[in-house]
Amino acid sequence: MLPVVILGCALAVAAPAAAQPTAVPGGFFAGYGAEAANPGGDPPGVNDWDCRLPPEHPRPVVLLHGTAANAQINWNAMAPALKSEGYCLFAPTFGVLPTATSWPMNVIGGLGSMYDSAALVREFVEKILAATGSNEVDIVAHSEGTLVGGYYVKFLGGADVVDKYVALTPPWKGNEAYGAGVALDLASQLGVEETMSNIWDPIAPALLQMAKGSDFMNEMTESGPYAPGVTYTNVMTRYDELVMPYTAGYVEAPNATNIVMQDSCEQDFSVMRPSGPTCEASNSCSMHWTRSTRSLCHVSSCHRWSADQLAEYAWAGRCSLLLSSRATRRTFRHLVFRASSQCR
Q1: Hey, what's the torsion of the CAs at 283, 289, 295, 296, to 10 degrees?
Q2: Which of helix, strand or coil describes residue 40?
Q3: pLDDT in tens, 192-205
Q4: Nearest to 127, CA basis, from 211, 62, 76, 188
Q5: Are 16 and 54 in contact (CB under 8 A)?
Q6: How far apart are CA 74 and CA 154, in angstroms?
Q7: For residue 154, is pLDDT > 70?
Q8: Which pTM does this prediction carry?
Q9: 12-18-24-28 Cα dihedral, nearest 10 degrees
Q10: Phi and psi for 73 in degrees, rounded to 5?
Q11: What is the residue-wise DSSP string for 95-116?
């Protein structure tokens, strides 16, 4: 619930006194279950085109998802909590590959060109304004969605209608996860950048566009990622394993506030605050089973357990969804090894 609290502060509007908290579904990964049960559906309380804006929340809130997700997957957990506070919520699915014709790929977004995705967001916002009668919207975006929405705001006229922009784990400076930025730079030096683009374009052009040094990112970073007149709030975690380094989202400006979760809670080892059962033995187990990310285990600090021991601990029931195959178990062991070798 901590990101929901932050969002409420960032949107800078008071919740109604009578608002009651709503039970939140089981976290981000529960969104995949919701998608399987209702392919292409909307998250709870989202895209109600008859929603009437209350005085305490006079602007619609647009939710923009991340890579390899969609509106339902990404916002299945957070949308009900925000809806219970009285917001009118809207969320598009963008970046579905044009070649995807069957489920699930025909509803998985965040893969196609981010230029096209930003244009789709512009059309979606225009539809929201017409339906609600509002002159402005607020945007809450996650990961890739921060860049898609950011491009819309900076280059496609969004600055005229967006008041507040809340970015969760934004890669404003370009993503360098798993050597993406280095690979793109090397391809450029070798003169094979076009070849790399030709390989990635049919698969997931957005992944290459997010990399530091791409044409898309060079456009975004020139003169800074922000648009004048829009108030930005960036929320980051030091332990981000998909946006690397996490400081890619830390861009100072008079109209921007940067929030690093661990600055206010050093024991916060993920975007969501750890809760639920944890190991008691000091310096023995750093595995946190968080209520808000039910199937996601995260290595949080230096430890004495071997990668195999931690993987077996997770496999015993803590991460049955995430570690449901040999391939993902091997990946998890690799991440544990990498985390423990980088402890400092």
Answers
A1: -50
A2: coil
A3: 566 656 666 667 88
A4: 62
A5: yes
A6: 24
A7: yes
A8: 0.71
A9: -20
A10: -65, -50
A11: ---TT--STTGGG-BS-S-HHH
Q: What does the pLDDT look like over 96-106, one tens digit per residue? A: 999 888 888 89
End-to-end CA distance of the chain: 29
Distances in whole angstroms, Cα of residue 282 to Cα of each of 24, 192, 204, 322:
31, 50, 43, 26
Strands 297-299 and 89-90, how do they pair?
unpaired
The lowest-confidence range among 127-136, 262-271, 300-309 is 300-309
Compute the distance between CA of residue 285 and CA of residue 266 in angstroms, rounded to an integer: 17
- Give the three-state DSSP class for 236: strand
- CA torsion, points 30, 31, 37, 38, in degrees to nearest 10? 160
Backbone phi, psi, residue 148, to 5° = -60, -50
Q: For the chain, what is the total number of helices (H) and then of strands (E)? A: 13, 8
Which SS3 state, helix, strand or coil, does residue 46 take? strand
Which residues are paired to 64 by β-bridges? 141
* Residue 248, SS3 per DSSP: helix
What are the residues facing 152 on neighbouring strands? none
Calculate the CA 10 to chain-centre distance: 16
Residue that is written with structure tokens 């009900």 in the block: 80
Establish how many alpha carbons lie within 13 A of residue 204's alpha carbon, considering only the half-sphere containing its beta carbon: 13
Contacts of 300 (CB under 8 A, 6+ apart): 239, 269, 270, 274, 286, 287, 288
